[in-house]
Amino acid sequence: MNTNDTFKSSVIGMQGNLLSFALKLTTNREEAHDLVQETTLKALNNEEKFVDNTNFSGWMMTIMRNIFINNYRKRVRENTVVDVTEDLYHLNVSQDSGIDTPDGAFAASEISSILASFPEDYRKPFSMHVAGYKYEEISERLSMPLGTVKSRIFFTRKRMREILKDYR
Questions:
Q1: 74 and 108 fall within a common domain
Q2: What angle do CA 108, 114, 116 make, to 5 degrees?
Q3: DSSP string of 107-156?
Q4: Both 66 and 107 in a single domain?
Q5: What is the dihedral of CA 123, 128, 134, 135, to 10 degrees?
Q6: How far separated are the first and last CA of the chain, in Å rounded?
Q7: pLDDT band at 159 (very low <50, low <70, confident <90, very high)
């Protein structure tokens, strides 16, 4: 039996373990089977990347976990609504948030006006973060170092908490 056949039989032998792990990740039988299939295909297509004398099971589980994470991030990105209006507070707020109440509308407009008072270098990264962008994406889109993006979002969040502490 050559190494290609050994590799394929190892992949086939992992199917039960992969399905168990996929069920833990997805909690849905159909999605778990799809994840196992996608993992198996990726492993077979990347056989040359597997290094002999390493943990085969760990390698397969890592492939599955990475596929699951990437699919999850893709779904989140697809379901994120990017609102280009000035009132960024309403973005990603649940329907029963109380914004429709007079107090909620007042708080939302207060938050929006406070955020508008921040310099654009701080407001823009923070608004993008609230909209669901990852730090790396913000850094790339604004041509700003990653550390600067993180510190500006941190500073804006901290300052907003200080200003809005009476709303809690």
A1: no
A2: 100
A3: HHHHHHHHHHTS-HHHHHHHHHHHTT--HHHHHHHHT--HHHHHHHHHHH
A4: no
A5: -20
A6: 68
A7: confident
Domain containing 12 — which CATH number?
1.10.1740.10
Average pLDDT rounded to a whole number, residues 143-153: 92
Composition of the chain by helix, strand, coil, percent to 5? 75, 0, 25
Domain shared by 61 and 121, yes or no = no
Domain that holds residue 140: 88-167
- pTM of the model as a whole: 0.48
Please say which residue of 79, 103, 124 terminates a domain. Answer: 79
Q: What is the chain's length?
A: 168
In a shared domain, residues 93 and 130? yes
Exposure b/e, 81-111, CB count within 10 A at least 16 = b: eeeeeeebbeeeeeeeeebeeeeeeebbeeb
Alpha-carbon distance of 108 to 152, in angstroms, equals 22
Q: Are residues 92 and 74 in the same domain?
A: no
